[in-house]
Amino acid sequence: MREELQARERLIVTLQSELALMEERVTTIEHELHDGPLQRFIAAKMELQALMGTPEIREEVLEKLEDLDRSLEIAIGQVRSILTDPFPLELDQGAGLGALCLEFSDPLFQVELTGEPSLDDVAEDAADSIVRIVRELIWNARKHSGATEVSVIVQRDTTKLIVEVKDHGKGFLPDQVSEGSFGLCAAIQRARTFDIDMHIDSAPGQGTRVMLRKSLK
């Protein structure tokens, strides 16, 4: 009994040490975000607004600059949100995919949602994983594909839920995904862990289509 108590005490000390280290890392990230990207976003927005005030600027150019200005405003708000709440609550299952699509949409990148976004009929851990996987897929499309729009299509029947994420970007070869593609590899592993069938259909120049299937019990 005494040895068991000592082992538990050692475990508690180890966990406390790891927690303190994690909190220190979070603080470092917050400072880097505030002093780095946030300040650059604000400076870029100020320069952009000064440029928009140029009298001889053409109307079509001004419209594009206004779209960019709105995107910068969204980015600034998102970074500030992270700084004020670095551990946001998980997206509600009832609106998870809907909220996610709204989060990523802006004037320069649209996420179109079709179907009922609620995941109430899926186990909580699986629903959370589906949201995280879709988040990674949208982020990859935005960052790497060159697409300006992503479609998220939700279908279900009495036995299964199907979530399709597709874009018309530059595509890639699924069998040549490297271990350096950490986000996509993590999404694939997460799907396996929670028994979510994940199929990637993509080719260079043909865009990307990912199907997620989860049995409903």
Descriptive notes:
The protein has a 5-stranded mixed β-sheet with strand order 1-2-3-5-4, covered by helices on one side. The protein contains 5 helices and 5 strands; from the N terminus they run H-H-H-E-H-E-E-H-E-E. The two termini are 42 Å apart. With 217 residues, the chain is of the alpha+beta class. The protein folds into 2 domains: 2-84; 96-215, 2-Layer Sandwich (Heat Shock Protein 90), CATH 3.30.565.10. The radius of gyration is 22 Å and the shape is globular. The chain has helices at 2-52, 59-84, 96-104, 124-145, 182-193, and strands at 110-114, 149-156, 160-167, 197-202, 208-215. Helix 1 (2-52) packs antiparallel against helix 2 (59-84) and helix 4 (124-145) runs antiparallel to helix 5 (182-193). Helix 4 (124-145) links the parallel strand 1 and strand 2 (149-156).
What would you call the shape?
A: globular
CATH architecture of the largest domain: 2-Layer Sandwich
Reading the helices and strands in chain order gives HHHEHEEHEE
Q: Overall mean pLDDT score?
A: 81
Supply Rg: 22 Å
The percent of residues in helical segments reads: 55-70%
User: Remind me, CATH topology of the largest domain?
Assistant: Heat Shock Protein 90
Under CATH, the homologous superfamily of the largest domain reads Histidine kinase-like ATPase, C-terminal domain
Estimated share of beta-strand residues: 15-25%
Number of helical elements: 5
Largest sheet: 5 strands, mixed
Structural classification: alpha+beta
Note poorly predicted spans: 87-94
How far apart the termini lie comes to 42 Å
Task: List the domain count as a whole number.
Answer: 2
Spatial order of strands in the largest sheet: 1-2-3-5-4
How many E-type strands?
A: 5
Q: Report the top-level CATH class of the largest domain.
A: Alpha Beta
